[in-house]
Design brief:
The protein is mainly alpha-helical. It is 64% helix and 0% strand. The chain is built from five helices and no strands. α1 packs parallel to α5 and α2 runs antiparallel to α3. The longest helix has 17 residues. It is extended, with a radius of gyration of 16 Å.
């Protein structure tokens, strides 16, 4: 189960993929909403990386930092996301 399917199941609404092209126009629109140019540049770099690498597996660094294996998106959605929604 992909992250978007798992999140959609917990939220009760489908989560759809939207291709974001982090070009200059996209960045300018975000800056006009009040986000800092530095923050937007970071998002753009992150999205450019996603476009190149797509979905990839987590490396060993996550386990080293957390001291446990990483969760799947489905486990995160059911454990954390569902719990947060139930607290509303």
């Amino acid at each position: 189960m992909t992250g978007s399917i798992a999140f959609g199941a917990v939220l009760g609404n489908p989560v759809r993929y939207r291709d974001i092209v982090p070009d200059a126009g996209w960045q300018a629109r975000l800056v006009r909403t009040g986000l800092s140019a530095e923050y937007v540049a970071g998002l753009a770099a992150l999205y450019r990386n996603y476009r190149v690498e797509a979905e990839s597996e987590l490396g060993a660094g996550v386990q080293a930092v957390l001291g446990r294996p990483p969760r799947s998106a489905a486990d995160f959605a059911s454990d954390v996301l569902a719990g947060a929604l139930n607290r509303r």
